Amino acid sequence: MADLFIALIHHPVYNKRQAVVTTCITGFDLHDIARSAVTFGVKKYFVVNPLPAQQEFARRIFEFWMDESSLEFNWTRAEAFKLIEIRGTLAEVIAEIEKTTGQRPKVVGTSAKPRTTISFEQLSTEIKSGDQPVLLLFGTGWGMADEVFAQVDGVLPPIDGPTPYNHLSVRSATAIILDRLLGR
Q1: Where are the alpha helices (DSSP H) in 130-169?
Q2: Where are the domains of the chain?
Q3: pTM value?
Q4: What is the number of alpha carbons within 13 Å of residue 154 lying toward its C-beta?
Q5: Regarding the domain delimited by 4-182, which CATH topology (the fold level of the hierarchy) does it fall under?
Q6: Up-side HSE of residue 48: CA atoms within 13 Å toward CB?
Q7: Rounded-to-integer distance, Cα 92 and Cα 30, Å
């Protein structure tokens, strides 16, 4: 089975006016996505934000949950937090994966907009039977900027429900996508 990594991209992403911005890290995204990552066997969960104040915010939350008393209070949350690494850029994430695995990962984007180039079934098969690491990218704000999509090897289909509304939280989308790719 291929190693699966995920990254939550906070920059470059769009705001609702389609300007490129940097979004804030949230404690919910750290907790919930890390818990999904552990559940589905993700090797590392990267949080990508170039702002030092945002990186420090994430580190403070991380340090709280890794503190001795927090470990006693809720060891499962601490276990999930062990997967998190903070990086400033997507290039740093890709370089880290190359360094640890010896291979460049296949980079796969996600989007609520139709940009599909690879199906869930195809990527699931590649992960389960392949050996090339895979990096799944999840965007914040109103989606990852085009410059991120210029760096991907494929894009999964959007998660569509029976209504025209399509603006899931990134936490929900991550859990659904991991289940579709690796669930039993």
Answers
A1: 146-149
A2: 4-182
A3: 0.95
A4: 16
A5: Alpha/beta knot (3.40.1280)
A6: 26
A7: 19
